[in-house]
Amino acid sequence: MNEENFYQFSTLTVLALLVFFYGGTYLLTLLIKKKKENTDAFMVSNHQIGFGLGAASMTATWIWAASFYGAATSGYTYGISGPLHYGLWGALMILFIYPFGRRFRKLAPNAHTLGELIHARHGSSSQLILASSNILGSIISLMVNFTASGALVSVLSPLSFQAGVIIAGVGVLCYTLWSGFRASVLTDFAQLMAMMAVAILIIPAVMFALGGPQTLSEGMSLLTPEQANLFSMDAILNQGAPFFVAVLAYAIGNQTISQRLFAVREDHIKPTFITATIGYGAIVIGLGMIGLMALMTGMEPIGGDMNNLIPQMVSMYLSPVFIALFFILVIGSLSSTADSDLSAMSAIVMADVYGKNIAKNKPDPTKMLFIGRLTMIVATLIGVILASFSMDILIMLVFVGALWGAIVFPVIASCFWDRITNTAFTSAVIAGLVMFCIARFELLPLVGVVGGLFELLAAVGGGVVLGLMAFGFCGRRVGLVFGTLCAIALAYFSIGFLRDYTVLLASLMAYGVSTIVCIAVSLMSSSKFDFSQIDQKVINYDPAKPAAKG
Amino acid sequence: MQTFILALYVLIWPLISLAIFAVIGIATVKDIRAAKRNKRELV
Fold first, then answer.
1. ipTM at complex level
2. Which Gene Ontology MF annotations are present (chain A) (predicted)?
3. Which structural domain, as residue segments, surrounds residue A279?
């Protein structure tokens, strides 16, 4: 099938492209390599990353191979509004975290992970919930990225799927292993510049190769009324809304983001995250347009597999040079995310597991560094094995997403409200996860009183999401009022309706239930937390580096 | 008119990408210069 439908590189050409990419990236990291790396710098650099490198790293990390394929699939399925409903909400995940990120930095200027902050606030159980969900999420992300590499290599060359997986795994590990997060940030910049340059060229190239704007205009007749509608309800309910719900969950639950929050210079957090938001949105929505153009030309994805859309369009309409650029685009996107996942996991095991729970805040920096590098090697091995055997662990992503949804309110509230307790945190997360599973897998029939009750809880969850977003930008009073009004409005519209959209219902319930339980259990206790303790407990581990001032 | 709007809708994204490309590129050059001036590491 491959030879007939996709352009085929020779084995030598594809190996040369991979050696050029990974060899060049490795050489770049030699510029910053030190014989003896600093433990803290290995996790978060010097807390002084500038605006340019910070924005580039944040954007490159957030764009993974699935971003292109997902946006193109959305464009092909939902038409005009499809790419917007994929890229816009993904971009807002970056934007909505920065107000909370500034609070995290203020409370714990020397933190390496969000888990450390939660450890100082609540103790081990809450911290380990966060850490374990992060590790699981990063392993899945690694597997997906290595799988994308295997699929790309096997589709565009005679090399096998496994060869593509192993080359990506070894390539990423080689340039990240020694300098950790520092290498990740530096290479992210080069990778993003390459990705942007390719995206800027490929999108207009595909459009004009198809026959220009006139062809698109004629292709409008192939769209259904729903696909031609910029405000399609089908696209909003099936694509936009579930993504919107995940906005805060993925931002809070993902160490790759919080690592950059703790690494960027504090006064650069806002411009860094705003630029990354726009950059991510433009690249991903733009590449999603290739899916829309495929729909408008009446193209059918080979074998009905939507992941073939972009490679098929590029193979059919562009020259081999552009196909090589597309190859670099996908390898760059998956590598930048994979190296960030490796850095994130190593920081979690170094700081959250070893630093806080084994060494009790008095770690040996040399041993800590060794543990971080060992974590990278083990994580790469696991990612390569899972990807090579095409193991279906994506169901785990459902649980990780639910877990992240359930921790959003407890994490944010713990940083602003002194009455949240460890019991409230853990019980809220467990309750949110249990109720998510009941709704998601329909363990109880979603009819009658149960259906109505679940829809009410989901409405509360919707109010929590919107209220937290308003709170982040406009303060507590606006957040409370806006969240309450939204919950009431959502309750009115969702009763008898939302039960037909179980993914959305279950995700919103995770937010709603965890919030209700967290508040109720916290109010049962009269204890109050002194936030100044966090800065004292979250420390630098390597005496070679001076502490950042709060 | 529809043709123009459709072309704009598709091409606006690479244009925005180009602008961000320039912003990040210029900011990084400034980061490198500042690091050299202050004799500290870039990352």
1. 0.96
2. symporter activity
3. 2-393
